[in-house]
């Protein structure tokens, strides 16, 4: 936990969020400023600053996050149509919140350009 981290505050319930999924290690909630009709953030509850700052052993949570993403896609009914997963890492990628998060985007036909 990092006292000044927005997503740690969401995990603790200090900042309200619209939760989509939760277990002991992972939380998923709707993005406050959705880029697509469905825009969910999937995060580890452990405060990992970014993909680049992952420590040995922490990679296990990544595969679990992908499993959860598939479960959410199935439950919300967009698994068939498709979805996009994005992780911004560092300044050039425009990472704004320093707590590892996976953007799960769906609900619209997306273009093939990333930037
Ligand atoms: P980044 O640019 O770091 O990859 O993405 C951060 C994301 O977090 C943005 O899409 C932004 O809208 C979202 N976000 C930032 N603050 C909050 C918040 O307090 N609540 C929720 N639900 N989303 C947030
Ligand atoms: Zn955090």
Classify the fold: give the CATH topology.
HIT family, subunit A
The number of strands is 5
Stretches where pLDDT falls below 50 for ≥5 residues? none
Identify every distinct bound molecule in the structure, by name, code or SMILES. Answer: guanosine-5'-monophosphate, zinc ion
Strand order of the largest sheet: 1-2-3-5-4
Report how far the terminal alpha carbons are from each other: 32 Å
Q: What would CATH call the homologous superfamily? A: HIT-like
Structural class: alpha+beta
- Over the alpha carbons, how many angstroms does the gyration radius reach? 14 Å
Level-2 CATH architecture? 2-Layer Sandwich
pLDDT averaged over residues = 96
Shape estimate: globular
Helix content: 10-25%
Main pleated sheet:
5 strands, antiparallel
Q: SSE order in H/E notation?
A: HEEEHEE
The tally of helices reads: 2
Strand fraction equals: 15-25%
Number of domains: 1
CATH class: Alpha Beta
Structural description of this entry:
- There is one protein chain.
- By secondary structure, the chain is an alpha+beta fold.
- The protein has a single domain (6-106), classed as HIT family, subunit A.
- The chain contains two helices and five strands, in the order H-E-E-E-H-E-E.
- It has helices at residues 6-12, 59-76; strands at 19-22, 26-30, 38-44, 84-86, 102-106.
- It has a five-stranded antiparallel beta sheet, with helices on one face.
- Zinc ion (ZN) binds next to helix 1.
């Amino acid at each position: 936990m990092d006292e000044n981290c927005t997503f740690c505050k969401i995990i603790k319930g200090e900042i309200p969020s619209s939760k989509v999924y939760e277990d002991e290690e992972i939380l998923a909630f709707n993005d406050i400023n959705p880029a697509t009709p469905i825009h969910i953030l999937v995060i580890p509850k452990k405060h990992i600053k970014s993909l680049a700052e992952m420590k040995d052993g922490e990679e296990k949570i990544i595969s679990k996050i992908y499993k959860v993403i598939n479960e959410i896609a199935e439950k919300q009914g967009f698994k068939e149509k498709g979805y996009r997963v994005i992780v911004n890492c560092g300044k050039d990628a425009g990472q704004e919140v320093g707590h590892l998060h996976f953007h799960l985007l769906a609900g619209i036909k997306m273009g093939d350009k990333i930037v």
